[in-house]
Each structure stands twice: as C-alpha cells, then as structure tokens.
C-alpha cells in the first residue's frame, strides 16, 4: 500500500469522524501526456482537495466544480477532461460530462466522482405522541434523530441517537449542527418555545405539527415578539403530506408517517452554495426510479441567474382534520383568544388524547 493511498484512507476516516461530506475521486483512464495514472485517488471536499492526487492544476477546476454538484444532489458522476472539448462550459456526452483542458499540456483524463454524504439528521422538538412516533420511524429511512424536549424521558425515545431534555435555544444550537431537518411536534405544550428553539438551529427546513389556523396564530406571536419574519414565514404548517387529510389518518403513527414523507421529499432536494438543486418532481411523485439527470442542466443551475434560496418554504397544505395536526389543547403560554377555538373535529378521536 503506497503512502498516497494511506493519506487518502486517513482523510476518509477524518472526514467521516467529523460528519463532513466529501467525494472520492478516482482516475479511470489516462491518455498521455498526463501526470496522473489509472487508479490514482483523491479526497475532495467543498473547500478543495483534502488528500491524494488525480493530476495537476489543469484538472482541478473541473473536479472541484463537479464535486460541488455531486455533494449537492448525492449523485456520482463521470467526467472527461480533454484538450479537444470546445467552449468554457462543459458538455454532456452520453453519461459523461466533458470539460475542456484548462492548460496547454494536452492529454485526457477520465475521472469518477463518488459523493459520500453524512447521514441526514432529523430534529424532533417536543415529547408528544407524534414526536415519539417520529423518533421511532425516522431511523428506518436512514435519518439520525435528535430529540429536544424539556424534561424528556429518554426511555420514550429509545431509537433516537440523542435525547436532550432541554428545549432552550442556546442548548439546542450547541447540540445540533446546521443543516438538519426540524419538526416541531409540541402539540400544545411549549409551542412557542419549541418554535423559538427550531429557529435557532439554522435548519434546512422546519415543519410544525398544527392546523393552519393554530400555526398562523403562533407565527404571528413569534413575529410580534421580534422573531425574523422571513424565517417564521418559511415554517411549513400543517406539516406532512396529504394522506392525513385525504385518507382520514389521525393516529400518532399515521400523522408521523405523513410528516416523515414530507421530510424525505425535502431530503431529496439538495443545495450547493445556497442554490437549490431539485430532483425531478415526476419521479418523486410516482416513486419510479430516478431518470438520468442532465449534468449540463445541473451545472447551469449554479449560476446566479438561476439561484433560488436554499430553504424554500413548501406551500401550505389544508389542515389535517381530526388529528394531532388539527389542534387540540390551546397553547397555554399564548394569551391569544383565537387558540381557544382550535380543537379536533367533533365525533372523531384525536391522538392528542382530547
């Protein structure tokens, strides 16, 4: 085993321990003159080369550009860097993205760029029945769960990777790295505090398990208290996909499943340098295998003219009737009379116990 290979393995281990995304770049084929050899490898992060060797400065701009795309959407790519590639922009040839050689040394490199992403994290705020169900279901779809709930009983959240019995914003920000998905499932107990905690986490997306009416009252209260209006408006409520509304779901597990479906959909949308790189909507809706994505389109999506906010609020869904999402007990810490009318539909049981 050569020293460069050992350096690559050490970098892989170091980045894994830090839970930092990176790509393993491997040289597949070389047409001389080129300084790289087939089998050469490098570890590349968003910030640059961490270890290894895949060629000199001629190859690095194309590699860095493609690594950022791969880390954004989680898809491996093969690229070719050749002197006969025309134009400054890459062109797509079959499944290969071809770049022009950035210098005059000549030679051709074919490289495989394989992204390695840390496990996505779901933060559940609250200790309601839906919060417990979410913490149990989420690890089954590959999400590492952190629970934040004042006085939380760790035994109720046996599947969570971390349970913090404190929903204070400062404690939460120290425990949770930026970029997590956050679901506030307080359901009438410390609603405002739970939302304040969520806003302190620099989350990719925040959902609130509540009816549209109750959510609006809570959002208005946050803004009146000085919270950032843009961040508050981006909170998605009611949380979850439409199965609860359309198919009568109302148990904690059913509501948690609908919320988790929304989280998984958001997880399949990536961001790079503040630009959203969306997956094809049709594949997400149908559950069919993902079609091959146009690499040229993905590359062009990173330009300023196509930039979109990294955290884009999803459209409000209708309130989930007769469920935990439809309300229940009023939030006692809010002296807002409008909350008194938020209750489960008559004649149908609520998973909140009311």
CATH class of the largest domain: Alpha Beta
The CATH topology label of the largest domain is Rossmann fold
**Order of H and E elements:** HEEEHEEEEEHEEHEHEHHHHEEHH
Number of domains as seen in the coordinates: 2
CATH homology group of the largest domain: NAD(P)-binding Rossmann-like Domain
Mean pLDDT: 73
Radius of gyration: 24 Å
- Sequence stretches where pLDDT stays below 50 over 5 or more residues: 271-354
Structural class: alpha/beta
CATH architecture of the largest domain: 3-Layer(aba) Sandwich
Backbone shape: elongated
Distance separating the two termini: 65 Å
Sheet with the most strands, sense and barrel status: 7 strands, mixed
Strand order of the largest sheet: 3-2-1-7-4-6-5
Helical fraction equals 25-40%
Count of strand segments: 14
**How many H/I helical runs?**
11
Strand content: 15-25%
How is the secondary structure organized here?
Blueprint: H1 3-17, E1 22-31, E2 41-45, E3 48-52, H2 60-73, E4 77-82, E5 91-93, E6 96-100, E7 108-116, E8 121-125, H3 129-137, E9 144-148, E10 162-164, H4 169-175, E11 181-184, H5 191-199, E12 205-208, H6 212-224, H7 229-233, H8 243-247, H9 252-267, E13 270-272, E14 275-277, H10 281-286, H11 295-300
Helix pairs in contact: 3-9, 4-5
Describe the structure.
The protein is of the alpha/beta class. The protein folds into two domains: 8-116, no CATH class; 121-276 and 311-341, NAD(P)-binding Rossmann-like Domain (Rossmann fold), CATH 3.40.50. 30% of the residues lie in helices and 20% in strands. It has eleven helices and 14 strands. The longest helix is centred in the C-terminal third of the chain and has 16 residues, at 252-267. Residues 271-354 have low confidence and may be disordered.
């Amino acid at each position: 085993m050569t020293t460069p290979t050992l350096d690559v393995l050490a970098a892989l281990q170091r980045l894994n321990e830090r839970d930092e995304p990176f790509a393993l770049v491997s040289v597949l084929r070389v047409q001389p003159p080129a300084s790289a050899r087939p089998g050469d490898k490098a570890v590349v992060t968003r910030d640059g080369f961490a270890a290894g060797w895949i060629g000199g400065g001629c190859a690095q701009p194309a590699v860095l550009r493609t690594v950022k795309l791969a880390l954004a959407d989680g898809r491996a790519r093969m690229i070719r860097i050749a002197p006969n590639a025309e134009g400054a922009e890459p062109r797509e040839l079959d499944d290969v993205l071809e770049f022009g050689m950035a210098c005059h040394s000549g030679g051709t490199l074919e490289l495989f760029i394989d992204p390695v992403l840390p496990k996505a994290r779901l933060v559940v705020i609250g200790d309601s029945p839906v919060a417990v169900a979410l913490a149990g279901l989420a690890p089954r779809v590959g999400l590492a769960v952190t629970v934040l709930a004042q006085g939380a009983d760790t035994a109720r959240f046996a599947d969570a990777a971390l349970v913090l019995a404190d929903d204070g914003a400062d404690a939460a920000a120290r425990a949770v790295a930026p970029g997590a998905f956050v679901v506030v499932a307080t359901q009438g107990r410390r609603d405002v505090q739970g939302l304040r905690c969520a806003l302190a986490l620099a989350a990719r997306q925040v959902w609130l398990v509540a009816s549209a009416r109750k959510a609006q009252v809570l959002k208005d209260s946050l803004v009146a208290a000085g919270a950032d209006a843009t961040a508050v408006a981006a909170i998605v409520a009611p949380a979850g996909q439409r199965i609860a509304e359309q198919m009568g779901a109302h148990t904690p597990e059913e509501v948690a499943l609908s919320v988790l479906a929304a989280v998984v959909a958001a997880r399949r949308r990536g961001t790079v340098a503040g630009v959203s790189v969306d997956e094809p909507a049709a594949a997400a809706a149908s559950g069919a295998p993902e079609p091959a994505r146009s690499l040229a389109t993905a590359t062009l999506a990173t330009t300023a003219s196509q930039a979109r906010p990294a955290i884009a609020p999803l459209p409000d869904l209708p309130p989930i009737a007769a469920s935990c999402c439809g309300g229940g007990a009023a939030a006692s810490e809010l002296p807002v009379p409008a909350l008194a009318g938020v209750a489960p539909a008559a004649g149908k049981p609520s998973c909140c116990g009311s």
